[in-house]
C-alpha cells in the first residue's frame, strides 16, 4: 500500500530529480545546448569564493537559528504547560506567526525595523529613545542577527507545539515519584523531563536543522540576501545561479547542499537515538 | 513567594503574546488608515477606522478568487497526503520489507533535497500532462512536496498503535487492505490533525511552485495574487495592500482556530513518539 | 505475494525512471531550437478552429491597458484569442519556459542569448512597422551581431536625475554638467537645508545601484566609444577599451566619487536600507532634493502627490571623467518579440499590427507614461511641463541606451550588490574596480 504514495512521488519528484542530477553534470546555461562536463561543476563550487562565503552565511544562520528555536520553543512550552486562564488563546497567539505567508511577513518586518522610518523607530521616538534602534538591516553583522531573531519569532510557536505535546505525554506519576525521592525542580527536569522529551527533541532538532540550512523565504523577504552578499544563503545562491545562466552548475550546488544538510541531520538523529 | 512566581509567569506570557501580535496589529492599523495618511504620520497607535479600504481592496485585487483557489488546492492536496500518506505509513510500520524500508528512507532523504533542482524538468513534465494552470496539477505537486513529512508523522503514529486488533482481524479472514481501512485508518484521526496543520499552511501559502504552475490570473492562489497586487501598486497604497493582506490572513486564522485543539491531541497521541 | 508483486512493479518503474532520464528530456534535448513535436505547447487551436495566442509580459504598468486592447482585439474578430500572462520575475520565468519548450507566442522579454540561439522570429521584413518607427529606435532594436531586428520597441524611456525645482531655485542652483558642479550643488543643499537629503539613493534595491553603474561608468564608456563601438567592445570583452580594472578607470573613479559623497554626508545615511517607496515619499514631501531614476517612477510620484509635477526637474548625469560629456539615458522600452517556433506566425503579426495602431499606441503610451517610438503617434505621455523638461534635458547631453551586451552571468543586480558592498565599506575604489573587472570576465564564460 506504499505504492500509490511512491508512484506519486516517483512521477513528480524522483523523475524530475533524476533529470536534475543529469543536469548537474553539464555546462547547461539554460539557453544553449548542454555539454557533458563530468564533475567539473562540483570542483568549480569549491573554487568560488562567493559560494564559500554563502556556506558560511548558511551555517551561521543555522547555528544561531536551530538551537535558539529549540531553546525558545522549549521555554515557551514549559511556560504554557501549566494550567491558567486563557491558555488556549495564548497558544494560538504564539503559533499565529507560523501560519502567515513569509511574503506578508517580510513586508511587515521591514516596516517595523527600518532605521529612521520604521514603526519601532517612531515608537522609540515617542519616548525620546530613537537612538536605541540601530541600522540593523544595513549592518553587515547585525542583519544576520535580525534574520535569526525574526526566524525564531516566526517558528518558535511550531517548535513549542511539538514540545508541549511531548510534555503532556509525560505521566504525572513520574514527577510524583521523583518528588518522593527528594528531587527538586532541576533534578526532575534533568532526570524526568529531558529523557522523556527525547522524541520531541529529535523531531524539533531535525526539522529545525533542515529548515534553517535550507532557509530561503524569510531572507528573500527581509534582506534579499543583502546588503551586498552578507546574508546570501546557499538556497538563494542556487536560485540566482539557476536563473543567471549557470543552470547546470546550480543543480550541482543543490546536490552539494543536500550533503551539507544530510550530515548534521544524521548526526543529530544518531545522538538522540543512542540516549533513548 | 508562589504568587510572585505566578505573577512573573503570567507577565512573561503576556509579553510573549504581545511580541507575537505586534506585526498583526500594525497590519490592522495600516489597513484602517485613510489613503492620505503616510505610514505613522500623526499618531502611531490609533487608526482612522476607514473601512472603505477593505471594500476597495476586495474589488481591485483578485483576492476573493485567490482564496477559493487556495482553498481548493489545500483541500485536494491534503486529501491526497492523508490517504496516500497513511497507506504508505501503515505498510512501512507494519511490514518489515526491504522495499518499505527503502521507500521510507527515500522519503526521509528527499526532505533534504532543495526543490529548485527539479524546477526545469518538473515544468516540462507539467506541460506534457497539461497540468499548467490547473488546480489539480498544483494540488498534485503540493501533495508530493508534503508527502515525506506526513509519512514520517504517520509512521510514528501507526507504530504506537497496538497490533493485536489488526492481527485478530486477519485471523478472522480480513485482508490487510480491509484491516487498514476499517480498523487502523479511523484510529489515525489524531495525527490527521497534526498532518493538516503542519502541511496545510505551507500549501496555502505556497509561492515557489505557484509562480510556475498558476500563471492565469483566474487561477492565482493567495501569494500570487498578493504579490501581483503589491507590485502593481508599487508601495503607493499601503492602506490597500494592508487591507488585502488582512483579508488573505483571516481564513487561515479561522482554520487554525478550528484545528488547534485537535492538533495538540494529535501530536500528543502519536507524532512525538516517532 | 501481493507485496512481492508491488515491489517488482515499483522496481521496474524506478528502473524506467532512471534510464528514462538519459534519453528523454535531458536539457540538451529540450533546448533544441526547433522540430521537436512538444516544442510548441504554448499555443493550441481549440475545437472551433480558433487560435489562442499566448502573450507573456513582465511589464506591470501596462497590464490594464493591454487587457483593454486585447479585449478589443478579441472581440473585433473571431479567429484569434489573445491571452496575457504577467509575471513579476518575467526574465527568470521565461528561461524556464524556453528550457521546457513552452514558449509563449509573443513576449516582452528579450535576451541576447536567445537571439544568438535563434529563438526569436526575424522581424526585419515588417517594413510597415519599421517605416513608422523613429530611426534611433530602429537602431536600438537592431541586433549588433546580425544586423537584423528581432523585436519592436513601442516606447522610449529616459533616466536621469529628478530634482526638486523649488529647492534649486530657492538656493539659486543650476543643473550640473560636471561632477565638481554636481558635488557643489549637493554641498549647498546640505548647508542651507539641513533637513533635506541632497541625493537620495535607495540602495536596498540592488537594481537601482546597478542602474547607477549602467548610467554613470557604463554611460561614460558608451558616450566615449559611441553606441555601436561600446556594444562591440562589450561583446568582444575588449579589455583595453573597457578599462574596468584600472585605478584611474571609469569604475575606480566612480567608486571614489560615490564614497566621497557618502563620507561628506551628501547622500542619505540609510542608503543600504532605503527603498524606492521611501525615495518617492521623501521627494514629494521635500525631504529629498534629488534622486536618479527612470521615467517609470513618474506614476508613483504623481500617485503620492498629484501636485508634484510642477516641481519636478530632470537633469542628465554630470560628466565625472576627464574629456567626457554629461549623459542621459534615452533607450528602447517595451519591446515585443515573436517566438521563432510559433505555429501562428501570421496571427501573432496580425495582433501586433492591431497593437501598433496609432490609436492603441496613444493609449498605451499614456498608460505607460513613456513617449511613443512611432513617429505617427502623438501621446500626452506626461504633463506638458514635464515633457518639455525632459526634451530639454535630452538635447543638453549625450544620449545613451541600455547595455544588452553584458555578460550573461553578471546581471545588473549583481553589479548593484557590488555597489552595496562598496557602500558598506567592503571595498576601496581600487579593489572595487578590480573586483568588477573580475566579475565581468567570469560572467563572460
From TrEMBL, chain A:
<dbReference type="InterPro" id="IPR051393">
    <property type="entry name" value="ABC_transporter_permease"/>
</dbReference>
<feature type="transmembrane region" description="Helical">
    <location>
        <begin position="92"/>
        <end position="112"/>
    </location>
</feature>
<feature type="transmembrane region" description="Helical">
    <location>
        <begin position="203"/>
        <end position="222"/>
    </location>
</feature>
<feature type="domain" description="ABC transmembrane type-1">
    <location>
        <begin position="55"/>
        <end position="268"/>
    </location>
</feature>
<keyword id="KW-1003">Cell membrane</keyword>
<dbReference type="Pfam" id="PF00528">
    <property type="entry name" value="BPD_transp_1"/>
</dbReference>
<keyword id="KW-0472">Membrane</keyword>
<keyword id="KW-0813">Transport</keyword>
<feature type="transmembrane region" description="Helical">
    <location>
        <begin position="59"/>
        <end position="80"/>
    </location>
</feature>
<keyword id="KW-0812">Transmembrane</keyword>
<keyword id="KW-1133">Transmembrane helix</keyword>
<dbReference type="InterPro" id="IPR035906">
    <property type="entry name" value="MetI-like_sf"/>
</dbReference>
<dbReference type="GO" id="GO:0005886">
    <property type="term" value="C:plasma membrane"/>
</dbReference>
<protein>
    <submittedName>
        <fullName>Lactose transport system permease protein LacF</fullName>
    </submittedName>
</protein>
<feature type="transmembrane region" description="Helical">
    <location>
        <begin position="249"/>
        <end position="267"/>
    </location>
</feature>
TrEMBL record, chain B:
<feature type="transmembrane region" description="Helical">
    <location>
        <begin position="12"/>
        <end position="32"/>
    </location>
</feature>
<feature type="domain" description="ABC transmembrane type-1">
    <location>
        <begin position="67"/>
        <end position="259"/>
    </location>
</feature>
<comment type="similarity">
    <text>Belongs to the binding-protein-dependent transport system permease family.</text>
</comment>
<dbReference type="InterPro" id="IPR000515">
    <property type="entry name" value="MetI-like"/>
</dbReference>
<feature type="transmembrane region" description="Helical">
    <location>
        <begin position="136"/>
        <end position="158"/>
    </location>
</feature>
<keyword id="KW-0472">Membrane</keyword>
<feature type="transmembrane region" description="Helical">
    <location>
        <begin position="236"/>
        <end position="259"/>
    </location>
</feature>
<feature type="transmembrane region" description="Helical">
    <location>
        <begin position="66"/>
        <end position="90"/>
    </location>
</feature>
<keyword id="KW-1133">Transmembrane helix</keyword>
<dbReference type="GO" id="GO:0005886">
    <property type="term" value="C:plasma membrane"/>
</dbReference>
<keyword id="KW-0812">Transmembrane</keyword>
<keyword id="KW-1003">Cell membrane</keyword>
<feature type="transmembrane region" description="Helical">
    <location>
        <begin position="179"/>
        <end position="204"/>
    </location>
</feature>
<keyword id="KW-0813">Transport</keyword>
<dbReference type="GO" id="GO:0055085">
    <property type="term" value="P:transmembrane transport"/>
</dbReference>
UniProtKB/TrEMBL annotation, chain C:
<feature type="signal peptide">
    <location>
        <begin position="1"/>
        <end position="22"/>
    </location>
</feature>
<dbReference type="InterPro" id="IPR050490">
    <property type="entry name" value="Bact_solute-bd_prot1"/>
</dbReference>
<dbReference type="Pfam" id="PF01547">
    <property type="entry name" value="SBP_bac_1"/>
</dbReference>
<feature type="region of interest" description="Disordered">
    <location>
        <begin position="25"/>
        <end position="48"/>
    </location>
</feature>
<dbReference type="InterPro" id="IPR006059">
    <property type="entry name" value="SBP"/>
</dbReference>
<protein>
    <submittedName>
        <fullName>Extracellular solute-binding protein</fullName>
    </submittedName>
</protein>
<keyword id="KW-0732">Signal</keyword>
Amino acid at each position: 500500500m506504499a505504492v500509490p504514495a511512491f508512484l506519486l512521488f516517483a512521477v513528480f519528484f524522483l523523475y524530475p530529480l533524476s533529470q536534475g542530477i543529469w543536469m548537474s553534470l553539464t555546462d547547461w546555461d539554460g539557453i544553449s545546448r548542454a555539454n557533458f562536463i563530468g564533475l567539473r561543476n562540483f570542483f568549480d563550487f569549491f573554487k568560488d569564493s562567493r559560494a564559500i562565503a554563502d556556506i558560511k552565511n548558511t551555517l551561521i544562520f543555522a547555528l544561531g537559528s536551530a538551537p535558539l528555536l529549540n531553546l525558545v520553543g522549549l521555554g515557551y512550552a514549559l511556560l504554557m504547560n501549566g494550567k491558567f486562564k486563557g491558555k488556549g488563546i495564548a497558544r494560538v497567539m504564539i503559533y499565529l506567526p507560523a501560519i502567515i505567508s513569509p511574503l506578508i511577513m517580510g513586508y511587515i518586518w521591514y516596516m517595523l525595523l527600518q532605521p529612521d522610518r520604521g514603526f519601532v523607530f517612531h515608537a522609540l521616538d515617542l519616548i525620546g529613545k530613537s537612538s536605541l534602534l540601530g541600522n540593523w538591516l544595513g549592518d553587515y553583522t547585525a542583519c544576520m542577527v535580525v534574520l535569526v531573531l525574526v526566524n525564531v519569532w516566526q517558528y518558535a510557536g511550531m517548535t513549542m507545539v511539538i514540545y508541549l505535546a511531548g510534555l503532556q505525554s509525560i505521566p504525572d506519576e513520574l514527577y510524583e515519584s521523583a518528588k518522593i525521592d527528594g528531587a527538586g525542580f532541576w533534578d526532575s527536569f534533568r532526570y524526568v523531563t529531558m529523557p522523556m522529551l527525547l522524541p520531541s527533541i529529535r523531531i524539533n532538532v531535525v526539522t529545525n536543522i533542515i529548515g534553517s540550512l535550507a532557509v530561503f523565504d524569510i531572507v528573500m523577504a527581509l534582506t534579499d540576501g543583502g546588503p551586498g552578499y552578507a546574508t546570501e544563503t546557499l538556497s538563494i545562491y542556487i536560485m540566482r545561479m539557476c536563473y543567471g545562466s549557470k543552470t547546470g552548475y546550480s543543480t550541482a550546488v543543490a546536490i552539494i547542499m543536500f550533503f551539507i544538510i544530510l550530515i548534521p541531520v544524521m548526526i543529530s538523529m544518531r545522538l538522540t537515538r543512542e540516549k533513548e | 513567594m508562589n504568587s510572585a512566581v505566578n505573577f512573573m509567569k503570567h507577565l512573561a506570557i503576556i509579553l510573549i503574546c504581545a511580541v507575537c501580535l505586534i506585526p498583526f496589529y500594525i497590519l490592522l492599523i495600516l489597513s484602517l488608515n485613510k489613503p492620505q495618511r503616510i505610514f505613522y504620520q500623526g499618531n502611531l497607535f490609533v487608526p482612522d477606522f476607514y473601512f472603505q479600504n477593505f471594500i476597495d481592496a476586495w474589488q481591485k485585487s483578485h483576492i476573493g478568487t485567490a482564496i477559493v483557489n487556495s482553498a481548493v488546492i489545500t483541500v485536494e492536496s491534503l486529501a491526497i497526503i492523508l490517504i496516500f500518506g497513511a497507506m504508505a505509513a501503515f505498510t512501512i510500520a507494519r511490514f518489515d520489507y526491504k522495499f518499505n524500508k527503502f521507500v521510507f528512507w527515500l522519503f526521509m532523504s528527499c526532505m533534504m533535497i532543495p526543490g529548485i533542482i527539479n524546477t526545469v524538468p518538473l515544468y516540462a513534465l507539467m506541460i506534457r500532462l497539461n497540468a499548467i494552470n490547473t488546480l489539480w496539477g498544483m494540488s498534485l505537486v503540493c501533495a508530493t512536496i508534503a508527502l515525506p513529512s506526513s509519512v514520517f508523522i504517520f509512521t510514528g503514529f501507526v507504530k504506537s498503535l497496538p497490533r493485536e486488533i489488526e492481527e485478530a482481524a486477519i485471523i478472522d479472514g480480513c485482508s490487510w487492505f480491509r484491516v487498514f481501512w476499517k480498523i487502523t485508518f479511523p484510529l489515525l484521526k489524531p495525527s490527521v490533525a497534526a498532518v493538516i496543520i503542519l502541511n496545510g499552511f505551507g500549501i496555502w501559502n505556497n509561492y515557489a511552485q505557484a509562480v510556475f504552475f498558476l500563471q492565469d490570473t483566474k487561477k492565482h492562489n493567495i501569494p500570487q495574487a498578493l504579490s501581483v497586487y503589491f507590485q502593481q501598486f508599487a508601495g503607493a497604497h499601503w492602506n490597500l495592500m494592508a487591507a488585502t493582506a488582512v483579508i488573505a490572513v483571516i481564513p487561515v486564522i479561522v482554520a487554525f482556530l478550528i484545528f488547534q485543539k485537535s492538533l495538540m491531541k494529535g501530536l500528543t497521541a502519536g507524532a512525538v513518539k516517532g | 505475494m501481493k507485496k512481492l508483486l508491488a515491489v517488482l512493479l515499483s522496481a521496474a518503474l524506478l528502473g524506467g525512471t532512471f534510464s528514462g532520464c538519459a534519453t528523454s528530456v535531458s536539457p540538451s534535448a529540450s533546448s533544441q531550437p526547433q522540430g521537436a513535436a512538444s516544442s510548441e505547447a504554448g499555443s493550441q487551436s481549440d475545437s472551433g478552429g480558433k487560435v489562442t495566442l499566448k502573450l507573456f509580459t513582465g511589464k506591470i504598468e501596462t497590464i490594464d491597458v493591454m487587457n483593454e486592447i486585447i479585449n478589443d482585439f478579441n472581440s473585433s474578430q473571431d479567429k484569434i484569442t489573445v491571452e496575457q500572462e504577467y509575471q513579476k520575475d518575467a526574465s527568470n520565468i521565461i528561461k524556464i519556459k524556453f528550457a521546457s519548450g513552452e514558449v509563449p507566442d509573443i513576449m516582452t522579454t528579450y535576451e541576447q542569448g536567445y537571439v544568438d540561439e535563434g529563438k526569436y522570429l526575424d522581424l526585419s521584413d515588417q517594413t510597415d512597422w519599421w517605416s513608422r518607427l523613429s530611426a534611433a529606435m530602429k537602431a536600438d532594436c537592431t541586433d549588433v551581431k546580425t544586423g537584423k531586428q528581432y523585436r519592436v520597441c513601442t516606447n522610449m524611456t529616459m533616466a536621469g536625475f529628478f530634482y526638486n525645482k523649488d529647492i534649486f531655485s530657492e538656493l539659486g542652483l543650476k543643473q550640473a554638467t560636471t561632477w565638481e558642479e554636481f558635488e557643489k550643488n549637493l554641498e549647498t543643499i546640505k548647508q542651507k537645508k539641513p533637513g533635506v537629503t541632497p541625493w537620495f539613493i535607495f540602495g536596498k534595491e540592488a537594481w537601482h545601484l546597478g542602474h547607477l553603474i549602467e548610467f554613470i561608468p557604463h554611460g561614460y564608456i558608451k558616450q566615449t566609444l559611441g553606441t555601436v563601438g561600446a556594444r562591440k567592445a562589450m561583446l568582444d570583452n575588449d579589455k583595453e577599451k573597457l578599462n574596468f580594472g584600472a585605478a584611474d578607470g571609469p569604475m575606480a573613479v566612480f567608486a571614489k566619487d560615490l564614497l566621497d559623497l557618502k563620507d561628506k554626508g551628501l547622500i542619505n545615511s540609510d542608503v543600504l536600507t532605503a527603498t524606492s517607496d521611501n525615495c518617492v515619499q521623501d521627494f514629494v514631501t521635500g525631504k529629498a532634493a534629488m534622486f536618479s531614476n527612470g521615467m517609470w517612477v513618474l506614476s508613483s510620484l504623481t500617485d503620492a502627490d498629484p501636485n508634484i509635477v510642477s516641481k519636478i526637474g530632470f537633469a542628465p548625469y554630470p560628466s565625472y571623467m576627464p574629456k567626457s560629456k554629461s549623459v542621459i539615458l534615452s533607450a528602447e522600452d517595451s519591446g515585443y518579440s515573436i517566438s521563432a517556433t510559433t505555429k501562428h506566425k501570421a496571427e501573432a503579426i496580425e495582433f501586433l499590427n492591431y497593437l501598433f495602431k496609432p490609436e492603441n499606441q496613444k493609449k498605451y503610451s499614456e498608460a505607460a507614461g513613456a513617449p511613443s517610438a512611432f513617429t505617427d503617434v502623438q501621446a500626452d505621455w506626461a504633463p506638458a511641463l514635464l515633457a518639455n523638461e525632459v526634451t530639454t534635458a535630452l538635447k543638453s547631453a549625450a544620449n545613451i541606451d541600455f547595455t544588452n551586451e553584458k555578460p550573461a552571468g553578471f546581471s545588473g543586480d549583481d553589479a548593484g550588490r557590488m555597489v552595496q558592498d562598496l557602500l558598506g565599506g567592503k571595498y576601496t575604489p581600487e579593489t572595487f574596480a578590480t573586483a568588477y573587472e573580475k566579475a565581468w570576465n567570469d560572467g563572460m564564460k
